[in-house]
Amino acid sequence: MPSCFIEKVFEDKYVSYWEWMQAQFLLKFSREQLMEMNESWINTFDLDGDGFTNEFEVRIMSSDPYVYNGRFAVLAYGEGLPPSWEEQVRYVEEFLKSNGFEESNIYRLYEENMTLQKFNQAIEDVSLKSREDDLVLVLLAGHGIKDEIYFSDGWINYGRIGNILLKIKARQIVIIDACYSGLAKNYLMSERIVLITSSKEDEETYGGISL
Q1: Taking the mean position of all CA atoms in its chain, how far away is CA 106?
Q2: Closest by alpha carbon to 133, among 172, 190, 164?
Q3: pLDDT tens, 84-132?
Q4: What burial letters (b/e) apply to 9-42, b meaning 16+ CB within 10 Å?
Q5: Residue among 139, 144, 160 at smallest CA distance from 199
Q6: What are phi and psi of 72, to 5 degrees?
Q7: Which of 14, 122, 127, 20 has the alpha carbon at shortest distance from 76?
Q8: Which domains does the chain show, CATH number per domain?
């Protein structure tokens, strides 16, 4: 480990998250390679200035730490949901805006606007604007039954959603908040998608509908 990095850690008298992640990143280089790097490079935890640590980009996102990662989001929640669901989606929206997601890169499909056509168009737009090293967050909140989630224009199979998401070459985090959303893993799991669901394959969410 470079002495200039160790000295900085000792100055702080504790190891921060950023320092720990940078230590893991530096371990990937040989002593000879590190000798060629200057102190500024060694102590820069986010080389491309996009808010993601170098180690997070390499190990989790499998992206280039020298290339800025753009951020895009498609947020959708359906009709007939409790007010608390809307509040949660609004909270996510504010969280994203305070963490590097530009207003123009956040697509909102709320209530009657959560249609398959508008979802498809939003994904199409994101696919044209994003690059492979970017990050796309897709949040779907709605009523769910086995293998399907409810849009304003009807029940949509997760397989169909998966086919639409294939248009995006960037890495994706897909969050589904619906009953039985665990079944979505049969359709959406891939190397470029991290899937997070609110329920298991046979589980309701917040006492949601069961058909």
Answers
A1: 13
A2: 172
A3: 777 888 888 888 888 778 899 999 999 898 999 999 999 999 999 999 8
A4: beeeeeeeeebebbbebbeeeeeeebeeeeeeeb
A5: 144
A6: -135, 150
A7: 122
A8: 3-60 (no CATH), 71-197 (3.40.50.1460)
Pick from 70, 181, 169: nearest CA to 128 = 169
Dihedral (C-alpha) 141, 145, 150, 153: value to the nearest 10 degrees?
A: 170
HSE of 211 in the Cβ direction (CA atoms, 13 Å)? 9
Instruction: With beta carbons less than 8 A apart as the criterion, state whether 89 and 75 touch.
Output: yes
What the block records as the tokens of 1 is 């480990």
Residue with tokens 């499909």: 109
The token duo for 106 is 């956040």
pTM above 0.85, yes or no: no
Q: Which pairs count as long-range contacts for 121-129, CB under 8 Å and 24+ apart, including other chains?
A: 122/74, 123/74, 123/164, 123/165, 123/167, 123/168, 124/167, 126/72, 126/74, 126/168, 126/170, 127/167, 127/168, 127/169, 129/70, 129/72, 129/105
pLDDT digits (tens, 9 = 90+) for 42-75: 888 888 887 788 888 888 777 788 878 889 999 9
